[in-house]
């Protein structure tokens, strides 16, 4: 008959305690998310309708829909992605696969991490100075999207680099030993196995880009513009700024309206995230070692 | 080699070859030749510099941090340092290391990779190459029905034979085998050994092995490495039957302490 010693029992109690502690912290983390979603659905749900999504705001933005803001946010995110993904992924490939391990590379890596820590309002001022004024794009989708792209580049670079580094080095060496060039190795072995991680980085970027307010306020987002932009050189409304406006700047807004806008913004991010996660799972199921 | 045979062509000439990893010296001052179309065996205990020699031949120092070599190694009459196109060098040298790396590609793609890197596109040609290489590596019968399965998910011994097939698919001039049979059962090992005996008409083979009997069975000439020194090189029969050094004798008689 096995009798646990005092030490066994002691370890068992600590084990249980740790479990409860970590579980508690996880729940604490989940709680705000659940509450936010619940409040948004409860208060903003009544505002949602097909008309809400497809009509222009009316009555000094107290009635009507959010169509221009919704389309504006989609346009801003798309242009920002088009600008940042090629640059970010290419830079990450260089840093991970080509760059020698020397002080310059380490300095660049440090700079990228610091760039990620720059407050968004600083990026906004940079975008205003660089894209709106210096390059003469004016307050426009282009200027706002490029500002967003610069702001989110570090996220793309860091996450892409990390997913490239997660591909085991022996795979590269096996390829090199067969006479494959760096690029052949990247294209045939490294990238196909890193793609799911790279997509994760892009998901993060989309979520961040869609919700940012400060960087687009000065560079391209309009307070009120009841029609769609015709080109990237036009201004546009955006959900995040619209939320700020109807929540704080406009009198006599029905309570459900800002909650409805917030719900659409979060819903948009969630839908994009789920689509990317689904894509990621399809890609991941094909491989692994 | 009979007396009437022409003088052997030197495929590799190592002169005062030393290999260092940072401050650690793995091989120092080795001098020996490897002849074309022979199987050259290298035996010796762990840490004797056998693998380091192979790594130099493929210029792995260019991507191994801290690794460098001194002295000269002539390969096909040209100093290894003068091979400006390292990709061409590595394509002509096939390597199999003891820890097999099945690339995370299908079995078929693993073996078709080298021909594809050379620019072969035709499916029919690739099919022929893949089957020939897998047969030579004694793996064909086990994988012919699942060529689409992931190479990285095969068993250890199968992955090892997969890397042999992959090295053969390079159609190398020089094949470097480092403990190729470490995870392979004895029967399959014998089948591969038979293939190697045939292959030496097409290529030069350097065989690093811990199994002294394997060197005895296969190698035309054998070198004994010990603690980073090349102690003795000679025709396999002479080295095993009449070693010039006491240490060689001690090692091949298994009296090594």
Automatic annotation (TrEMBL), chain A:
Domain ABC transmembrane type-1 span(s) in chain numbering: 70-276
Compartmental location: Cell membrane
Transmembrane segments: 20-42, 66-95, 107-135, 141-164, 185-204, 259-283
InterPro entries referenced in this protein's UniProt entry, alphabetically: MetI-like, MetI-like_sf, Phosphate_PstA
Keywords from the UniProt entry: Cell membrane, Membrane, Transmembrane, Transmembrane helix, Transport
Swiss-Prot/TrEMBL GO biological process terms: phosphate ion transmembrane transport
GO cellular component: plasma membrane
UniProt GO molecular function: phosphate transmembrane transporter activity
Membrane topology: Multi-pass membrane protein
Family under the similarity heading: Belongs to the binding-protein-dependent transport system permease family. CysTW subfamily.
Xref: NCBIfam families: 3a0107s02c
Protein name per UniProt: Phosphate transport system permease protein PstA
Lineage of producing organism: Bacteria, Pseudomonadati, Myxococcota, Polyangia, Nannocystales
Gene, per the UniProt record: pstA
UniProtKB/TrEMBL annotation, chain B:
PROSITE patterns, per database record: ABC_TRANSPORTER_1, ABC_TRANSPORTER_2
GO cellular component, one term: membrane
Enzyme class: hydrolase
Keywords recorded for this protein, A-Z: ATP-binding, Hydrolase, Nucleotide-binding, Phosphate transport, Transport
SUPFAM superfamilies: P-loop containing nucleoside triphosphate hydrolases (SSF52540)
Molecular function in Gene Ontology: ATP binding; ATP hydrolysis activity; phosphate transmembrane transporter activity
Single GO biological process annotation from the record: phosphate ion transmembrane transport
Domain ABC transporter: 12-252
Enzyme Commission identifier(s): 3.6.3.27
Transmembrane segments: none
Organism domain of life: Bacteria
Name the UniProt record assigns to this protein: Phosphate import ATP-binding protein PstB 3
